[in-house]
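Researcher: Going back to the complex we discussed earlier. I've cleaned up the inputs and rechecked each line, so this should be the final set. Can you rerun the prediction on the complete assembly and write out the structure?
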Amino acid sequence: MTQPIQVTVWNEFRHEKTNEFIRGLYPNGIHAAIADGLDKAGGFKVRSATLDEPEHGLTDNVLSNTDVLIWWGHAAHNAVEDEIAAKVRARVLDGMGLIVLHSAHYSKPFTGLMGTSCSLKWREAGEKERLWVIEHGHPIVEGLGEYFELEHAEMYGEPFDIPEPDTLVLVSWFPGGEVFRSGCCYYRGRGKIFYFRPGHETYPIYYDENVRHVIANASRWAAPGNAPTPVFGNAKPLEPIEEE
Amino acid sequence: MTQPIQVTVWNEFRHEKTNEFIRGLYPNGIHAAIADGLDKAGGFKVRSATLDEPEHGLTDNVLSNTDVLIWWGHAAHNAVEDEIAAKVRARVLDGMGLIVLHSAHYSKPFTGLMGTSCSLKWREAGEKERLWVIEHGHPIVEGLGEYFELEHAEMYGEPFDIPEPDTLVLVSWFPGGEVFRSGCCYYRGRGKIFYFRPGHETYPIYYDENVRHVIANASRWAAPGNAPTPVFGNAKPLEPIEEE
Amino acid sequence: MTQPIQVTVWNEFRHEKTNEFIRGLYPNGIHAAIADGLDKAGGFKVRSATLDEPEHGLTDNVLSNTDVLIWWGHAAHNAVEDEIAAKVRARVLDGMGLIVLHSAHYSKPFTGLMGTSCSLKWREAGEKERLWVIEHGHPIVEGLGEYFELEHAEMYGEPFDIPEPDTLVLVSWFPGGEVFRSGCCYYRGRGKIFYFRPGHETYPIYYDENVRHVIANASRWAAPGNAPTPVFGNAKPLEPIEEE
Amino acid sequence: MTQPIQVTVWNEFRHEKTNEFIRGLYPNGIHAAIADGLDKAGGFKVRSATLDEPEHGLTDNVLSNTDVLIWWGHAAHNAVEDEIAAKVRARVLDGMGLIVLHSAHYSKPFTGLMGTSCSLKWREAGEKERLWVIEHGHPIVEGLGEYFELEHAEMYGEPFDIPEPDTLVLVSWFPGGEVFRSGCCYYRGRGKIFYFRPGHETYPIYYDENVRHVIANASRWAAPGNAPTPVFGNAKPLEPIEEE
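Model: Rerun complete. Updated structure for the full complex:
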């Protein structure tokens, strides 16, 4: 029997405590809605971790037992300790998958792994979003139609200051006139990273069937296999050489 | 239970009939050695097809029941009917995986899908080949060491006139002074293509454990999922527009 | 003094003869409008070639004296001789730049070099197009704003069945709900290819300042430099090897 | 007349003061040898900046008047102030070109912009290096042969923990059995980055004609043009939308 993929859903988990409207949408936190989607998809063992737990819930033990880390943050990126963000990045380079949702484009793990500002355009007007599939053979889009729609979403628009994705799988259309690279795959070190645009704490995005489907596909794609172990540093020659 | 992946191994299958040394290495054909490797890996249902069968063994029925086509050819690329080669290319764009081995760099399906000459340097001197892993998180290199070696191989060297791979997973070193992009992944249409360098009919390459491991990994990676169906042609607007 | 870049603008040049409205827009042919834009930009020596000339105007002499070939075709792709299309592709692999405009996505030189169907969605409704810059540091977008608009254009929408561009520089937005990768760069052989979406014979697209600016930038980018000459075929070792 | 490209060559400049052998090779510092190469190529206005100057020689005024920054460091990466490294990275995202030489793979500007460890294999044995051209149409390889050689170099080998280059232009071969991606191009923000492997303070690498040729080509490629200015943040709709 295949082992379940161990997913940790990290959530800032503050909006849900301080804002009644958001609590109404996500009474147990955004992480619970995401975990519910993965549970229904099957094949995952999901736990959560949140900002205000000790070590933000990301102890060494949790990180080393996490195949895929899903990250949601919005207003408190700076409250994440640099040391914890660095551990997350190191674990990604060592093979852990990382799925970065929506406003987590500005999170320390993502900006540090991208090396760019990760800035973008945004507008909160409850606009429709239509996400077009760009790379049809990629496992992250399996089972989708040629596009899917979200009735109300925060708009994110280009320019999105990221490295060109290793594979661009989704591009979004917004009625206000913008486009956005909304599904972006990266290989980094032994790990895989997927940035997925949809979300916002004021919309029930993480109950949407297509969004859940993509997150489940991405979690399978990003899960580490038995990756080769790179060996760095001073190296003996593998073939006879004439030393100078 | 997961369905097995249906692999068709296509082989020119002429050297083995005309050259005693080659027949000694591959008494039932190169395709049989490749099929044996997949059988031992498990999870595949393998059949073969060869040049001198009617329609080169690639009837519409065979093609439509093939998840992944492995292609080995060397001296008789021109004997492949244009019409069959076109069918293969169309099936790849429609989702069938394609694994192109060694001298099949000059095969009609591959050159047609790449659009370039696919020319390269070569030398038959029984040199060692060392294949270095470049993209550690890619599923095709799972389970490998940081490199693997083949004691005797035909040399292929850069320049290799291909489009830059969507992902470059392996680069080869040869003692004569050359390097080569020896594991190259492409998305094309709904399909996936993997070019894998090792081979040659005069070496027992397709009995090598690492080579077999890569071919099995690649067959899993290239197998189609439930890819979205692109809709081309005249399109009605999805949003109200003002006609000019 | 820098030598001017020798540009040949190839035009199907049939619509302009048979349709009065189109002739009104492009009285001397689309090629003349494109050439005028390049002349005004400066630094180019422009000639034209058209379908109904002998060898479609693309004699060996013309091709070997062309740095950059701009291609516009729409309704008569099949009237282009296979042999001429093959010569164009070979010249691109040998270093000639190729700029493919709008409906030339289905031209023989482009589909052959891409290896995919190059199919897409389309709609003739005179919609607005907004082209967003995606890769700000690329020479093709120098001097543009963060986006530019065309008031009336034929819509092209994803899926666009092309290889993932080596660099994606522009993405279009359309009011009917579609997006499109409208500026796509490719390295192929020693040459460079740029697909640029805007156009259509029924709109004065090739008089637009931004469109002309992009075509001039692309012509500079695609012009061949002194590219290394690849050496293919049987190669002597560069280092001493032990022959088997 | 074309304005010269303003290049600043940054050098750690410590080995040359403390080690007689290195001082013998580079009596005025590695930066002087690099500057000499650019001066001979022509079209550049070159200045230098070194670690032990105030602000490491990289004042705001110097950075804002630098088109292309060339970076050489080896033993004192940690002595570079975080604040200065951050300014360099910000200037790259704003359009300044960055050329990263040899052991500067571990410099703060480069690792920060890449987001990965940038670790690699190395060996000091005075081996030969042969650099093969991989992307023949790229401006950085103009004027080279299909490969060039350095008689004695420090070996760097894969794995090289970098993001897959946006364009891979050179791959190195070493006699000890290793390969290395030795010419790597990146777009980041409005800027361009080129990593170029050759070097080492104990070899006269920066007097080599081919190395100088590549550095001059790369400086031209990386020089900023008139790049579009991205606009980030809260955005008004460009088209009428229905607010929720």
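Model: Worth noting: Chain B touches chain A through 33 residues (CB under 8 Å).
Researcher: Good, that matches what I expected from the previous run.
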